[in-house]
Amino acid sequence: MAEHELVIRNGTIVDGTGSDRYVGDVAVSDGVITEIGAVSGTGRREVDADGMLVAPGFVDIHTHYDGQATWDAQLAPSSWHGVTTVVMGNCGVGFAPVHERDRERLIQLMEGVEDIPGTALHEGLSWNWSSFPEYLDELDRRPRDIDLGTQVPHGALRLHVMGERGATQQPATPEDIAEMARLAKEGIEAGALGFSTSRTLNHRTSLGEPTPTLGAAADELVGIAKAIGETGRGVLQAVTDFIERDAELDLFERMAAESGRPISVSIAQGARSGDDWRVELDRFDDASRRGIQMRGQVGARAVGLMLGLEATLHPFMFSEPYKSIAHLPLAERVAVMGHDDLRRAIIDGARVDDTVLGSRAIHRYRFIYQLGNPPDYEPDPSTSAEATAKRRGVDPLEVLYDWILEDGGRALLYQPILNWFGESLDAVGEMLRHPASVPGLSDGGAHVGTICDVSFPTTLLQWWGRDRPHGRIPVETLIAKQCRMTAETVGLTDRGVLNIGKRADINVIDFASLQLRAPEIVYDLPAGGRRMIQRADGYRHTFVAGTEIMCDGESTGATPGRLVRGAR
């Protein structure tokens, strides 16, 4: 009789602690690791991992599956990239608590901030909840492939308590703060992993209105944080523009210090500045040394826009001649765009017009590249649209027109925005190595027509662990960051390492063959909504609590994932 439910044999184990890799076996029973090293007993199922990396499942702490998790059993694309636990409810946006009167506003907020089609949210959300505990119960009822944790979103709290005053960034009264604090505490006690807020002008509703939490005062944020601290668990998460950097850093440190709860903040290199992020991460590291846990969530590459005829944005979208054909099916559109007269008219109509909101942003020719397949996320600056046009002696729009029509109009162009000052990823490598950083910001489930960063975990391993010509990072360090440190950041210490008694969330990876594919557009959201997805090769097996959910890039259909309620 088999002694274990599963034994993974002869793999190169990278256990998530940061220790050196070694060859060994991993045995699993009842969803946990029961033996590791040289396993003598047999397994009901045996997997030969000779030549493969065996690592913990990845923990992605910055996603936005708040809508998708209520209608979809597969939290893809995250589960296609070795991720076995996701955390949503980031950036202060979400769908609970909610009064019926505010449902539309929460949809507008999520649609604007996270680029999730409002039609899909209208069609997909059941609204079988009002309070945050009821929302957790709704999430708990649905089977899914991977584990899911969520946070109490500040935007929803403000609307629920303050109504129109909250939506229009009015100051909260002491009574408002007390009620928001009570509801946040209630959410944590019901199983939320934390509380999140947004303080960036980049976050706007689909109507162009700022996020309700933009100007929330210190007494509001500290009051909510202190109430969460009374529970003895829960984490804090924030995103900000750092316009008044020192004041913002002081505020975040105060929230963490007065609540006794850890905080993580989104960190990136700005488009116009080179090293502000160093000051921020160093401040977090100093605070952590003083016993106030602060970490920066950083990306694995540049945060960049995907431009294409099927995407939300592309360089010709404001051209009047293009608008006249934009309604056509893709194949018909591409066919007529090949006509010389229309080509010239579309290009002439696409000149930068500063009076059109967003026009200049998609005409930064120096920073637009062909993405390619496999995708190139650290392109040589000499291959930009501007540089290519100079070599050819033509207008950059001529180059972009040709590029965007490739692959039957399905080609995607790449425009790095953040983490691209200096036109390389050197700063990203430094961020990833920093002791106060953890990988994050993948935004899985969001930005479905503009950004596809859900593949950050794969970039971390493939580019930084294997392919980058210089500045590579040891795989042991990358796995420790993406597994143990991310899990610890949100209070989950039952996973993230391969050790006896830990959850059997395990990846078996053909590291030599690990390869991202190019993103693609599909129309599989509710109401036929569009989203951008991305797959990868090289993930041979992904197990959640010992049950295989992915095999060679294909779902097994198993749904062992569950809602994770609270710190573990």
Please give a structural write-up.
With 568 residues, this protein is α/β, with parallel strands linked by helices. Among the domains are: 195 residues, no CATH class; 113 residues, no CATH class. Helices cover 30% and strands 21% of the residues. Strands 1, 2, 3, 4, 5, 18, 23, 24 and 25 form a 9-stranded mixed β-sheet that branches. It has a 6-stranded parallel β-sheet with strand order 9-10-11-12-13-17. The model has no long low-confidence stretch (mean pLDDT 96).
SSE-based structural type: alpha/beta
The major β-sheet equals: 9 strands, mixed
The proportion of strand residues reads 15-25%
- CA gyration radius, whole angstroms: 24 Å
Task: Give the count of helical stretches.
Answer: 17
The helicity comes to 25-40%
Task: Kindly report how far apart the N and C termini lie.
Answer: 33 Å
Number of strands: 25
Look at the structure and give the mean pLDDT: 96
Principal-axes shape call = globular
Poorly predicted ranges: none
Q: What's the layout of helices and strands?
A:
Elements lengths: L3 E10 L8 E8 L2 E6 L5 E6 L4 E4 L1 E3 L22 E5 L15 H12 L3 H7 L7 H10 L5 E3 L1 E3 H9 L1 H4 L6 H17 L3 E6 L18 H12 L5 E6 L4 H15 L3 E4 L9 H14 L4 E5 L4 E5 L12 H4 L6 H8 L2 H9 L20 E2 L14 H8 L3 H9 L8 E6 L7 H8 L3 E3 L16 H12 L7 H15 L16 E4 L5 E2 L3 E6 L3 E5 L2 E2 L1 E6 L2 E5 L2 E2 L13
Helix pairs in contact: 4-6, 6-7, 7-8, 13-14, 16-17
